[in-house]
Amino acid sequence: MTTIGVDFSKRTSVFSVLDQQGNRIMRRKIVNDSKSIHEFLDSIPGPKRLAMEASRNWGMMHEAVKGRVDFTLGHPKKMKAITESETKNDNNDADLIAKLHHSGFLPKAYAPSQEIRNLRSLVRFRRFCVEQRKSVRNQVSITIDRNVWPADRPLSFKNPFCKRGRAWLNSLNLLETERIILNECLKSFDQLTERITNLQADIERICVNLPGLKYLRTVPGFRTGKVNIYAVLLEIGDISRFRKARHLAHYAGLVPREYSSGDKHRTGRLVKQANMHLRTAMLESTLMAIRLDPGLRQYYKQVKERSGSGSAIVACARKLIMCVYHVLKEQRPYRAFDMPPAAAFAS
What is the DSSP string of 8-38? Predict the structure, then answer.
């Protein structure tokens, strides 16, 4: 079988072609358009397999070569031979990807379907809008702090974006420049709030038939969740790609890094190479789950006494995502469990 390694750039791509013995027979630089790619692939006889490094636009290449080659996506974090090379260029990268794929040492990444990719983009865009609104809120707080003494602020509300808070913000006697800043912030806040509401309605309408949704709804923290439940399902994708629940927890970045050698065993901070969108959704859902599930709440209190609130929330999120794994893997409702005594968690 012919092996093809691709270094996919924005405007052009380099294709490195190896024969069955692993010898390079061709290297071609092609303009990125589906017609040119199709013509090049069709000019290579026999069965073909193609590999490329995951990037933000890898889906376009995947759709362009679908049905023509066996497609494999390389994991960018694990392909250090490329990222740390002293002679990094498009030709060398394409050659190296082809050689890794031919030898069977190419670290593979999960390639979700186009439908999952599109839904992920929608949910992530809503998260982007939420972060923008948070930045606007912070800017309003900064404006208040530099213009109003704490003693002069009303005590009847804490949130300046509630109905009484907005009336108070509009009544503030500010300098012209400060009033312009505040008015623009409030206008942006209202626009972002409307955008987030519309996006949320679209997500709930489009994702209503996602596989596993009805089972995940039974897990505490997701019973009334409006967005995080869709984020978790879409970021996980195919649950069968995780052999164990701990593998899913590692993918979500909810397990600590480990430094062990011989008789020494030491753990550090949470792993860095993780799906941050999934981690955020799990941590936010855990706050609700702790209030709803007695066993999880007991576990939270035990860990909090020993390691503090932050570590306890992460530990509960790790416990919760393992429950999510079994619920989705076994296609069954959530079953509450009795927590073992505190001594069982000492290790």
Answer: E-SSEEEEEEE-TTS-EEEEEEEESSHHHHH
pLDDT one-digit tens code per residue, 109-156: 999 999 999 999 999 999 999 999 999 999 999 999 999 999 888 888
Cα 102 from Cα 243, distance rounded (Å): 25
Buried b (16+ CB within 10 A) or exposed e, 174-194: beeeeeebbeebbebbeebee
| Fold assignment, 2-103 | Nucleotidyltransferase; domain 5 (3.30.420)
Torsion of CA 106, 87, 15, 9, to 10 degrees: 100
**Closest by CA position to 323, among listed 254, 273, 272:** 254
pTM comes to: 0.85
Q: Which residues of 303-327 are buried (b: 16+ CB within 10 A; e: fewer)?
A: bbeeeeeeebbbbbbbbbbbbbbbb
- Greatest CA separation for the chain: 79
Amino acid in position 173: N
**Helices and strands in the chain, H and E counts:** 13, 7
